[in-house]
Amino acid sequence: MKIFMKIGLILIKEKRMKTKITELFGIEHPIIQGGMHHVGFAELAAAVSNAGGLGTITGLTQGTPEKLANEIARCKEMTDKPFAVNLTFLPSLTPPDYPGLIKEIIDAGVPVVETAGRNPAEYLPALKEAGIKVIHKCTSVRHSLKAQDIGCDAVSVDGFECGGHPGEDDIPNFILLPRAADELEIPFVASGGMADGRSLVGAMALGAEGMNMGTRFIATQDAPVHQNVKEAIVNASELDTRLVMRSLRNTERVLNNEAVERLMEKEKALGADLKFEDIIDEVAGVYPKIMHEGTMEAGAWSCGMVAGLVNDIPTVQDLIDKIMSQADVIINSRLKNF
Ligand SMILES: Cc1cc2nc3c(=O)[nH]c(=O)nc-3n(C[C@H](O)[C@H](O)[C@H](O)COP(=O)(O)O)c2cc1C
């Protein structure tokens, strides 16, 4: 029995996939958990990093530098592996204390920052000077090239399928990834629609050096969100997401529910006159109610089309092990036999 367990362990270890991304971030498997508002807490980030991927704490969910410092410290208690902090740069009348958040990240020795939203150029010198690797999430080739130009180490290329903000170009990953591969010199991971070993091998075939997942990681035992959220993802099909806020040029892919239907009615009625204030009830401050209280109709929440591929709620360790085993079988059996 013990011998079999040992052999099993060796096999899993052999399923490591060395890519430019695993080398850049010092991780075992080329799998990243993207920042997720009110999901990316220390518990999930540590579970992903402990399983050999790169877990990410979502900076803006913490809000203040003090709270972020505390969350980073909690994560360090749960893992000694590298993990990242996500900084999402949003247009805002009262912006978060980005310099303060960055100072805490640097002081705590966090090795990787995932940036998203606006161009992070203003904050890059401080991060780079501290030796932090920066991966910027982009929904287009032109933004990816810009990220490369300003000195980012890698890009997370987020296709139209993704949960959250897919941008306004609507280019799915089957086109976007090879386009990125044709133009970029820095390594990139595929983001949006990734769920399993098939996604990983497909992404690598299209030129990526790994993959980033959001929605799939929510439906895990380690994600510190209400069970209702996990079950909503398992019960959803690929037909159940909607795009909202298009007319505000702030398009978000969300899981359909009563609040989303109300929101879309308003969008239809007001057309180009729609303002953020008109839909504030459906989008502002709803994440804690959904993610922590499990009130699923409280508002619009990000979810990817990949929900159609999510049928279980495993531990993160089992999920990542299974992804790597499936990738191994695809590469070494299925593809080799053609
Ligand atoms: C519930 C949820 C919240 C998210 N919040 C953020 C966020 O705060 N910042 C960010 O950069 N990306 C955010 N994302 C995007 C993810 O990091 C990731 O890029 C995306 O989920 C990938 O697509 P997938 O869901 O198909 O895997 C969020 C995604 C989800 C599903």
Describe the structure.
The chain is α/β, with parallel strands linked by helices and 338 residues long. The chain is built from 16 helices and 10 strands. The strands form 2 sheets. The chain has an 8-stranded parallel beta sheet with strand order 1-8-7-6-5-4-3-2. Strands 9-10 form a two-stranded antiparallel ribbon. Helix 3 packs parallel to helix 5, helix 5 packs parallel to helix 6 (98-107) and helix 10 crosses helix 16. The longest helix has 20 residues, at 316-335. The radius of gyration is 19 Å and the shape is globular. The chain starts with a helix and ends with a helix. The structure holds flavin mononucleotide (FMN).
Tell me how many strands there are. Answer: 10
Could you give the order of the helices and strands?
Answer: HHEHEHHEHEHEHEHEHEHHEEHHHH
Number of helices: 16
Class inferred from helices and paired strands: alpha/beta
Overall residue-averaged pLDDT value: 95
Strand order across the biggest sheet? Answer: 1-8-7-6-5-4-3-2
Q: Gyration radius, to the nearest Å?
A: 19 Å
Oligomer: single chain
The biggest beta sheet reads:
8 strands, parallel
Shape: globular
Question: What ligand species are in this complex?
Answer: flavin mononucleotide
How far the N terminus sits from the C terminus, by CA atoms, comes to 36 Å
| Uncertain regions spanning at least 5 consecutive residues | 1-12
- Proportion in β-strands: 5-15%
**Helical coverage, percent range:** 40-55%
